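sry for the spam today, last one i promise. struct tokens for design, 274 residues
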């Protein structure tokens, strides 16, 4: 079963429509957030919606609803479905662009579908990332423009692209990237990447355990010296990376620091439910 909230009501995805005049269709102008549930409660709901509204402000999109109204709609939709869910919240560019005020008539809609987690083998053996020389056009904002993620990605479900402009590692197509190098957890700064909700949770957990964290772009040239790597995201949580391109990471198996942080994340996950 799938569900969509649009135009003030819940309908099937097949009944949900957007006019072709909406700028999300005509010019690819729109924002979104992906939220998963755990024990039927949304995970990190407020940080996701705050990031959506920050992105709207940066994009000159005037959201039609406040954060409390959006929370209520999301929770209402969860109550109409069963099991764990993947929820996507969208703000479109709408039909109007005012050169002074921006996008003043955006649309808000939400989709709900059953949550599909990555296969357990990914966590047991790790995945490979494919480095590409480039990055998202607007790292600070989660827009609907994922063209590079689709067109540059290898046709392999075990692989995700890794943005490495001029040899600096920023983030992967759908995730934040971490490198464990000389007992220091290294990840790109927020000036270069999206403010990932799981990224911040991992940084907080690392500090909690006394692990040193350095927020700078790790380098492709540093990969041979790294002992571990992983990516983080709302659905994948903490997913070990054992190879970047042809470069093996550590001994080619998920490492102890990654496993420890994963265990801590699951221990603390209920703190982030709303």
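last one done:
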């Amino acid at each position: 079963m799938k569900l969509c909230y649009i135009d003030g009501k819940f309908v099937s995805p097949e009944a949900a429509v957007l006019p072709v005049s909406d700028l999300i269709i005509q010019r690819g102008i729109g924002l979104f957030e992906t939220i998963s549930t755990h024990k039927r409660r949304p995970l990190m709901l407020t940080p996701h919606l705050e990031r959506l509204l920050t992105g709207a402000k940066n994009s000159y999109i005037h959201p039609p609803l406040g954060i409390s109204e959006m929370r209520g709609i999301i929770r209402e939709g969860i109550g109409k479905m069963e099991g764990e869910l993947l929820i996507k919240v969208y703000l479109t560019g709408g039909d109007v662009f005012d050169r002074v005020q921006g996008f003043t008539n955006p649309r808000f809609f939400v989709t709900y579908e059953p949550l599909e987690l990555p296969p357990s083998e990914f966590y047991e053996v790790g995945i490979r990332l494919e480095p590409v020389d480039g990055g998202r056009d607007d790292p600070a904002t989660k827009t609907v423009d994922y063209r590079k993620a689709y067109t540059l990605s290898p046709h392999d479900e075990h692989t995700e692209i890794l943005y490495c402009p001029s040899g600096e590692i920023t983030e992967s197509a759908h995730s934040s990237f971490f490198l464990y190098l000389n007992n220091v957890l290294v990840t790109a700064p927020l000036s270069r990447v999206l403010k990932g909700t799981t990224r911040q949770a991992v940084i907080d957990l690392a500090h909690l355990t006394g692990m040193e964290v350095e927020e700078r772009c790790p380098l492709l040239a540093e990969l041979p010296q790294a002992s571990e790597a992983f990516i983080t995201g709302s659905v994948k949580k903490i997913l070990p990376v054992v190879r970047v391109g042809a470069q093996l990471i550590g001994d080619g198996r998920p490492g102890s620091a990654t496993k420890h942080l994963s265990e801590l994340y699951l221990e603390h996950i209920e703190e982030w439910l709303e």
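The chain has two domains: 3-114, 120-272. ok im logging off now
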